[in-house]
Write a structure and sequence with these properties.
The structure holds two protein chains of two kinds.
Chain A: E1 21-23, H1 26-40, H2 44-49, E2 52-59, E3 62-69, H3 73-76, E4 83-88, E5 90-96, E6 99-102, H4 107-110, E7 117-120, H5 122-128, E8 134-135, E9 139-142, E10 151-155, E11 161-167, E12 182-189, H6 192-197
Parallel strand pairs in A: 7-10
Antiparallel strand pairs in A: 1-2, 2-3, 3-5, 5-6, 7-9, 8-12, 10-11, 11-12
Chain B: H1 2-15, H2 19-40, E1 48-51, H3 58-67, E2 71-74, E3 81-85, H4 95-98, E4 102-104, H5 107-116, E5 123-127, H6 133-141, E6 147-152, H7 157-167, E7 173-178, E8 190-196, H8 211-214, H9 217-236, E9 238-248, H10 257-266, E10 270-272, E11 281-282, E12 300-302, H11 304-307, E13 312-319
Parallel strand pairs in B: 5-6, 5-8, 6-7, 8-9
Antiparallel strand pairs in B: 1-3, 1-4, 2-3, 9-13, 10-13, 11-12, 12-13
Helix pairs in contact in B: 1-2, 5-6, 9-10
The chains are: A alpha+beta, B alpha/beta.
Chain lengths: ~200, ~325
């Protein structure tokens, strides 16, 4: 965890002199930790963090959280009016209006740390990357204890992570659904890389 | 003289170039090679991809793409690089591309990073980094360790840099928007610096025929001035003994050999070193009859008519300890 009392003078400031990068203080970090753990299991956030340091980057209307190696700290905390930091290390997610939203690149790191996942057919996996949601007929594997509202990682049959979905039914009730009924709603998918940045 | 002017005009009209460009090609290469160049620029450049070893092994992606009917052919001097034929499909729309398993990249561009030869745990600066082909390549060569400082000034282009970094799973980059001429303010010293400098793009004619008419000699001179300044900044952040690679996608000696010749005069601590990869052709030591530093022979060029790629210039230098 970041240590309190770090000198703000050493934080990187943007061209308008406003603070851009800072170590994440416990007040910033704890809500993130609690939300990821609540969604994916106790202790997942700390395993994800490993020996990296949480950093916050101030963006329009919120905070972006990144994990960086400890040895970077001296090098990124440089005061400069000529440069605006845009990203660094592993992007963990964004906090806006008190709600934390995971970042897409971190999902595949969570795959081996949680059983909150759903495996879908090849066709459904590709359709998911175009923003489609998941129907009963596409589901190949899911933990039966997962409940409605649960966020789940969406995997294809090669265990590649396609994105994140929210269950719209209890997994235990799956057998009662017909083939075309909705199982999980698309929250984010890797097609975003193309849609957002092309 | 009158005959030469007439010939210049004829070729400019036939191939759709501005007169000053043909004039320079004739002075640099003579008529036969100029014609080879002009004809080569009318032919399409082969597609190429780089396997992103941060997300996939070469051994697993190659058969996966072949199974989908795509043809791959290894690029001899880049182990992760392949010439690729995708038929009617756009490689950027493939599922494997979305997953970040490969990057669509020109052969010269991926050669630049191979020449830089970044190693795990080093500190590397990528100046003028968008759209991210070189930053993502550097990251995979560094196995996502160490630190890459990627600088880009353009507000729109930095978005594409970010997108490619995220898609390719790069986790060792620090992306900053700002003027590369001020990088010494960051107080970060780098083991290696890559300056793929903004240029007139005269090497891209096979990819973008509009370049035949879009730039003037004044544009080339303006670019050369910026390149001088950016090189001076690059050397200011380079560790003693560190490596600087300068490249452009221009074939104009004014943006390449002349720039490096001047740079070597200003910076006695820098020397051009051999590139231990077999590609392209040696760069020029006497372009337009101007005798330059003989070590420029160690730098390399890609030329459409010699190598079947877009035009490129790559020079590797080391800072004396």
């Amino acid at each position: 965890m970041a240590q309190r009392g770090s000198s703000s003078a050493r934080w990187l400031r943007g061209a308008d002199r406003s603070l851009r990068i800072a170590l994440a203080e416990p007040d910033d970090w704890n809500p993130v930790l609690h939300q990821i753990d609540a969604d994916f299991g106790q202790g997942v956030t700390e395993k994800l963090r490993a020996d990296r340091i949480p950093i916050i980057l101030r963006m329009d209307g919120g905070l972006s959280f990144y994990l960086v190696p400890r040895e970077w700290l001296d090098r990124i905390m440089v005061e400069s009016e000529s440069f605006d930091p845009h990203m660094l290390g592993l992007w963990l997610g964004d906090m806006k209006r008190g709600e934390f939203k995971l970042a897409l690149p971190v999902l595949h790191h969570i795959v081996p740390l949680t059983d909150k996942r759903i495996v879908v057919s090849r066709h459904a996996a590709e359709a998911f990357t175009y923003g489609r949601s998941i129907l009963k007929e596409s589901v190949l594997k899911i933990e039966s204890s997962l409940q409605r509202g649960q966020q789940v990682l969406v995997l294809n049959t090669d265990d590649e992570c396609m994105g994140l979905a929210a269950l719209s039914v209890d997994a235990g009730r799956l057998q009662l659904l017909s083939a075309h009924e909705l199982v999980a709603k698309n929250v984010m998918d890797i097609g975003w890389y193309i849609r957002r940045f092309s | 003289m009158k005959e030469q002017r007439q010939r210049t005009k004829e070729l400019a009209e036939k191939y759709g170039y501005q007169n000053y460009m043909i004039e320079r090609y004739l002075a640099l290469w003579g008529e036969e090679e100029t014609l080879q160049f002009l004809n080569a620029c009318e032919r399409p450049i082969r597609n190429s991809i780089r396997v992103n070893t941060l997300k996939s092994s070469i051994d697993s992606l190659e058969p996966r793409l072949r199974k989908k009917g795509f043809k791959l052919e290894a690029i001899p001097w880049i182990k992760e690089g392949f010439f690729a034929s995708f038929g009617t499909e756009s490689p950027g729309s493939l599922f494997e591309h979305m997953l970040g398993l490969f990057y669509v990249q020109g052969v010269p561009s991926m050669t630049v990073t191979s020449v830089l030869d970044p190693r795990p745990s080093e500190t590397v600066m990528d100046i003028a980094a968008a759209p991210g082909g070189k930053t993502t390549h550097i990251a995979q060569r560094m196995e996502n360790s160490g630190l890459i400082v990627s600088i880009e000034q353009d507000r729109l282009r930095i978005k594409s840099l970010q997108g490619n970094i995220l898609r390719c799973g790069v986790e060792n980059a620090f992306v900053l928007r700002g003027d590369a001429k001020r990088i010494s303010q960051l107080q970060i010293k780098a083991d290696r610096v890559l300056l793929d400098a903004p240029c007139s793009g005269e090497g891209l004619i096979p990819l973008d025929p509009s370049r035949k008419t879009s730039k003037s000699m004044a544009d080339i001179r303006y670019c050369a001035g910026r390149q001088d300044e950016m090189l001076d900044s690059a050397v200011s952040v380079l560790e003693d003994g560190g490596t600087l690679v300068y490249s452009t996608c221009s074939i104009a000696p004014e943006e390449n050999e002349y720039v490096i010749d001047d740079f070597l005069k200003r910076h006695a601590e820098m020397r051009v070193v051999p590139i231990p990869l077999e590609f392209g052709v040696p760069s020029y030591t006497e372009p337009f009859g101007v005798r330059l530093n003989p070590s420029l022979e160690l730098a390399r060029r890609f030329l459409p008519h010699k190598n079947g790629t877009e035009g490129f210039f790559i020079c590797k230098m080391v800072k004396r300890s």
